[in-house]
Design goal:
Distance between the termini: 27 Å
Strand order of the largest sheet: 4-3-5-2-1-6
Number of helices: 16
Structural class: alpha/beta
Helix content: 40-55%
Order of helices and strands: HEEHEHHHHHHHHEHHHHHEHE
Number of strands: 6
Amino acid sequence: MRESDPETYDAVLTEAAAVKNGKGVAWRIEKPGIEPSLLFGTVHISDPRILQVPTPIFEAFDHIDTLIVELKEIANPGAMTLELFKYPELYTLQEKRLDQILRPEETEMLATALRQRGLTMGLLARMRPWFIYMSMQSSECEAKRRAAGQHVLDQAAALKALENGIELVGIETFREQMETLASVSDESMLWGLMDLFAVPYTFDDQTETLIQLYESSDTGMILALASALARDKKPLHEFLEKVVFERNRRMTSRALPYLEKGNVMIAVGALHLPGEEGLVELFRTHGFTVTVIE
């Protein structure tokens, strides 16, 4: 982008610089009279570079009492699969198939992308757009690592907590997370799905960029880049409101009792941290001092 579209690149830099708390994946949460806690932004990727967590986060596993993750079931993917089967109404289309909704050229684009991941349109034609969209948010390399049994960062943290005898807490239930994703309109998710193929960058390019931005703790840039790559900002805003901001408010209310006790680590997706409605700022509104570590 910097070489081929410098105008957009400069706009991304400007937008990223304006994101509040847009630099940092590890934060210390403090309040007088309470043991400090930690907030850690993760990425749901198994790349070895991602698993090299900041030293304060790694060392925290020697003394924290509780680890809060998005889903407790992350420590047992088999349990997550079983949970998924319980709620077909949330991820399947009830009337038309996807290939009856999309234009022929869009159907072929999607079918080609699915084939590259060992999937077929016939297998997923009854799936709601959000399910396919979330299923495709990884590169070919990432898919191979997961197939080989390698852990994404959140899962590695959860397993380490259990290994160390640390209480593991899910800040939301699997059904709640599913219902949140299902609440985004099919129209918006279809538009987002097609955006994946409209940008002039491969999935590998995008994943590599995400990894490098995460390594530099630049969560604001991740948000700004997502905005720049969206052809229509309205579907993106709906997605962010429902999947990020609404969940931030829920996460905050549920995390507060643990933070009041102290000595807890909260490890959730890095996009939940930055911005006016991010966890960093929300915790501050409840009287906590939140400062960046890394």
